[in-house]
């Protein structure tokens, strides 16, 4: 006969596991509470609801995104063994002195990894999606960890005319970085609703400009236009698409630049090129893609297509080289971009992380990344849906 002690053992184990799970959940909430941000309220929320992009209580894409859940699950079992570097990534470090002299051509860009770029255009300085934090995560110990330390200390940045944010995912909107910037004398330009996060983190509301698609603002002599993108937003499961996502055109007196943010391919990219192009430089996301989510991110070949559609002259592939956010090898995005650019006659520039370059005086091509196995577009095609 089973003793009472034996019968109660599974129950004690279950209670212990339940308590451990509750402890982990509470710990995660405490750790990430500030990073989760805040939902928009009042007039900010009312303005969001007036947007043509708003529907059924959230923002929506004109072409809804298709996701293959099981494809994402099974894709994890096929992940590349080279998803993260096994050796240090070649990088370029420097301080504020490198920006003391204006670029002779009037346009210079410094890629600081992933989607963080310092753009110097016609005498103005713009920083995109600044991420100085250790992880693309709300948690301090869990989540994708950066492969190298920040290549330029925040205190070494030159004075900025504007900081632009494409959307509120953690690899683009980094709470530790924005909290460190909260007292900076600059303008923060964000899509609708994202301003609520910044205000919660201490950025003065007077320094925040929130834009809908096709809306414009002027920072001194530089015009900044929020252009459409095909993506999503959210920092918790319960706030999916509660804020808008966007790409941006930077229009100076002489030069024009387009920053894609995160996006899948969509027909209105042609409208961006016709209305605001041609662009001297496009900075287009080309990494963190998968065939199971072909509408969330462009993928390398469609990044080249996007560059052509928006009427770009020189293409800089970004959104790679800092975090492991997908199942492909870490060098695959750049290999496939170069192959597609060669087929189509597109000029692509691949600087080292931290390296500055001028699209009007491109540096000599240098293959600085290791030669690793990668899948071609035929082996792993990324093809956006609903493009007709």
Written account of the structure:
With 388 residues, this protein is of the alpha/beta class. The chain has one domain (49-357): Metallo-beta-lactamase, Chain A, CATH 3.60.15. 24% of the residues lie in helices and 18% in strands. The protein has eight helices and 16 strands. Residues 9-13 and 20-28 have low confidence and may be disordered.
Q: In terms of topology, how is this protein built?
A:
Blueprint: H1 4-36, H2 42-49, E1 54-55, E2 58-59, H3 69-75, E3 107-111, E4 117-121, E5 124-128, E6 162-164, H4 175-181, E7 187-191, H5 195-200, E8 208-211, E9 216-219, E10 222-227, E11 247-251, E12 256-259, H6 269-276, E13 279-285, H7 300-309, E14 312-318, H8 332-344, E15 347-348, E16 356-357
Parallel strand pairs: 5-6, 6-7, 7-8, 12-13, 13-14, 14-15
Antiparallel strand pairs: 1-2, 3-4, 3-16, 4-5, 9-10, 10-11, 11-12
Helix pairs in contact: 7-8
Question: What's the number of structural domains?
Answer: 1
Would you count the extended β strands for me?
Answer: 16
The percent range for strand residues is 15-25%
Q: What average pLDDT do the residues reach?
A: 93
Total helical segments? 8
Low-confidence stretches: 9-13, 20-28
Summarize the structure.
The chain is α/β, with parallel strands linked by helices. It is built from eight helices and 16 strands.
